[in-house]
Design a protein that fits this description.
This protein is 64% helix and 0% strand. With 269 residues, the protein is mainly alpha-helical. It is found in: Nucleus. InterPro entries: HATC_C_dom, RNaseH-like_sf, ZnF_BED_domain_contain.
Length: 269
Amino acid sequence: MLQRTIELEAALVKFFAHLKQPGGRKEFKGVGKKLRRPKAEEWLTIKCLQTLLGPFAVASETLGGQAYPTMPLVLPALSGIRKHLERTDLFSAFAAEAGEESYVPETVAKMNECRKVMLELYETRFKDVENSELRWVAFLDPREHRNFMYHHMFGPDIVPSGASDLTTECTKEFSRYLEAIARVKSTVIPFTWWQVNGTNYPNLRRLARKWLGSVATSVPSKRAFSTSGNILTVKRSSLKPDRVRDLVFLAENWKGINALTPHRRSGAA
């Protein structure tokens, strides 16, 4: 809503100017008494709020997807939000655009207070997340090229002499994996990449199979409930549970199956 309001700012300014004209008052009789033109400080507040909340909207939409792996995106999304909230110059551009008006310092100060409160709430809720399993789950997406986090997972580059054969094998395998994904384009589909290259990384492949299919939010589950409601209607209330389960599965995965399965037209050679 805030983004849409900002996009309509120029149109709203012209509309309220039109309302002051005789033709506008006649065309929109009585509207002028019901509507109030936003003040300059209110426009500044709207723009600051949109900037402050924008990354949350992007993260919510991205993590609520179900056509791609979402679990590896949790840590990058949270890290990006934290860095966004830590910016002390977040509203500087809007303050400079507004000029030296008397309302600017107070409005920007209030917005910075909101930013600080949100940062405190973030630290309270997510302070332990960046040190959780999500650190290495993010690496199962081959589009992640952040090699600097390797040390957080395996420590020094040199494998201790007393390390087990499995530890040595996994460390070498992960090193080869990091070298390979450094050349992966951001447009690649993670599932397809693992289907083609999984045999080269047998230990990581087992982790990828487990975690890449995990969803980051409950949004896909809520969509599945809606699908169940569309399938189990009054006229189909006698369906057995197993049949309902299969129908929901087909409805939720049919588009993905069509996208991954090559089709041939009937009669084609």
